[in-house]
């Protein structure tokens, strides 16, 4: 799971270097899409990360809250 988190952080960091334009939340919303279903982690630690990430998507990108 930490490899996925590292890959996401690296992608976000490198995405900001692609152009001279400032990074925006809109760009991140295009990179990460709403999965469309409730995601469950294998362990409590995984679930906390998933929940935080999904909550950021709900607040920042307007994703629907899973049922």
Automatic annotation (TrEMBL):
Provenance organism: Microbaculum marinum
Keyword Signal: yes
Protein name in the entry: Lipoprotein
Signal peptide: 1-21
Taxonomic lineage: Bacteria, Pseudomonadati, Pseudomonadota, Alphaproteobacteria, Hyphomicrobiales
PROSITE patterns: PROKAR_LIPOPROTEIN
UniProt keywords, alphabetically: Signal
Superkingdom in the source lineage: Bacteria
